[in-house]
Amino acid sequence: SYPALSLYGNFKSTSKSTYDVVTGGNDICGTATLTTCLGFGGGQLNTLGFGRLACAFDANDKPVANRYQCHAEPGYDGVSGVGTPAGLSVFKPLSPLAKLSVGGTVTHGKAHTFSAAASRSPFPGGKITKYVWAWGDGTTTTTTKATASHKFAKAGKRTVRVTVSDNYGTQNNGRTGTTTAKVTVK
């Protein structure tokens, strides 16, 4: 639904998903000075009355400070953004990443703290906003933090699952990241 989220999210995760365009531009003069571009002293282009013809120069034919809007350069620029796709992988749907860390002995009848270590959103500006913990004993806990405590009532083997959601919510089509860990409750 929102291909730009996938484009920039994949770029953030793997910059090799795009080819960085570093030469060229959308300015009539290229990277040349206005004088060189016009081939005569003083240089006039945007002041000739035809509108703004040279992107890298303001309406008074003075160079603009943010010329990256008009000329390709390494990294983000106004000409090609983050570059051109290097295949279709840059548009693959992304989901938040969930990793679960279980440490120490899990003892029944005592609260044990679990940690969703290194959980992250793949999107620029994204952050994990919700954790849903399924304890493998029929109970669940929802938190906004990467840790949760749980007290198992009985001994046995359990599969603990954490599902994370990010702040993009509906833009991310409700995608979530899930991971599990096996624990033995003694």
Helix content: under 10%
Question: β content, as a range?
Answer: 15-25%
Give start-end ranges of low-pLDDT stretches.
none
Tell me the Rg in angstroms: 26 Å
Structural class, judged by helices and strands?
Answer: mainly beta
- Helix count, DSSP H or I runs of 4 or more residues: 2
- Written as H for each helix and E for each strand, in order along the chain, the element string is HEHEEEEEEE
Secondary structure elements and their pairing?
Blueprint: H1 3-13, E1 18-19, H2 34-38, E2 84-85, E3 111-115, E4 128-134, E5 140-143, E6 147-151, E7 156-166, E8 177-185
Antiparallel strand pairs: 1-2, 3-6, 4-5, 4-7, 7-8
Structure in words:
By secondary structure, the protein is mostly beta strands. Helices cover 9% and strands 24% of the residues. The chain is built from 2 helices and 8 strands; from the N terminus they run αβαβββββββ. It has helices at residues 3-13, 34-38; strands at 18-19, 84-85, 111-115, 128-134, 140-143, 147-151, 156-166, 177-185. The strands form 3 sheets. A 4-stranded antiparallel sheet has the order 5-4-7-8, with no helix packed on it. The chain is rod-shaped and about 85 Å long. The mean pLDDT is 78.
